[in-house]
């Protein structure tokens, strides 16, 4: 009889390529991050969703900085109620934009970033459109987005992954906390280069991993008092092995401009 998760040739645990109930004992980092995705999909199910308009996505990610999803969405709704179109936003005064998005906080900074980003797009393209990024290699498109005011690696990655289906993985503070505790990225610094190096160039896998890791971070892997006993990743969690779960983690918020809004 062949047991699930056991190689019949020598009865040693193997690294599963798909979802399975047994955690592998020995994994390299690339295998581990795929195992994390498998475990989260097994636990929560595979999230579904459509690709989002890139201009709206860009504005939403800027609005999401240092606020929760509810206030971000309220700010965007207020902005569009006030101006009707993003072209109207582009030519509006900073004061009027800031007033419309006040509920999201940091309204002066975000108003400036939104208007300057929209103006940069029009200056480059002649109109509000980012579809030309589909014609660029992924990292060339990413580099172009990073030159926009108010856009950091996370925001650019969100636009690339969730608007253009390009395999660029964005990381927010929840993702960095989880991946740091799993031993895949340092507690400090930008996690994007390392995570993108570890992950296969699979945009669907990246979207699922992004959304489900954020869910895990919000619901279980808290900065303070993580509920490790409930965590589907605990058997491979480096942090759990070496910390009391009641201690506060040193991982702090990502220094970036914008965040996921899906």
Number of strands: 0
Judging by the overall fold, what is the CATH architecture of the domain at 54-164?
Orthogonal Bundle
N- and C-termini, Cα separation: 44 Å
Shape: globular
User: In percent terms, what proportion of residues is strand?
Assistant: under 5%
CATH homologous superfamily assignment of the domain at 54-164: Hypothetical protein, domain 2
Largest sheet: none
Structural class: mainly alpha
Q: State the name of the first-level CATH class of the domain at 54-164.
A: Mainly Alpha
State the helix count.
12
Residue runs with pLDDT of under 50 for 5 or more positions: 1-24, 255-262
Order of helices and strands: HHHHHHHHHHHH
CATH T-level fold name of the domain at 54-164: Endonuclease III, domain 1
Helix content: 40-55%
Rounded to the nearest angstrom, the radius of gyration is 20 Å
